[in-house]
Amino acid sequence: MSPVEEALRLGVHVVNIATLSLDGTHPSNRFTYYALPETLTNFFYITTFRQSTKVKEIEKNPHVSFTTAPSNEKNAWVGSNDAIAEILDTPIQTVSHLFEDQIDGWHDTVGDLDSNDWVVIKITFASAMIVSQDGVSYFPETEDD
């Protein structure tokens, strides 16, 4: 397992996503849960309410940055200033099993998934830095890693 996959899979799946505010004057940060696809490449999913400010900010400017919460046994976190958020035209049920398998109590937290109030957002990162007790590594891996 690569350092980025290990750090993303072993954590509590909490990420801070930073978007640009709607008025374009400052960053807008919020914590949310993320879920990984079964085979990790360079993206993860988040979900939110369709009418949220987060969705409006992403529609206006899809460039985001993120930092995961350090929570696994290596106290690792992953961060990127080179990510794109894409609002998918797919029902939350297509990814809900990933969240339920990876996050204890996720379904109890989000409640009714049958409403049309939810959107799935795919966060794709071109590069990332992984910091852990083992040191610093990068995605994609460099010759120094």
UniProtKB/TrEMBL annotation:
It comes from the Bacteria. InterPro entries: Split_barrel_FMN-bd. This is Uncharacterized protein. It comes from Leuconostoc pseudomesenteroides. The lineage of its organism: Bacteria, Bacillati, Bacillota, Bacilli, Lactobacillales.
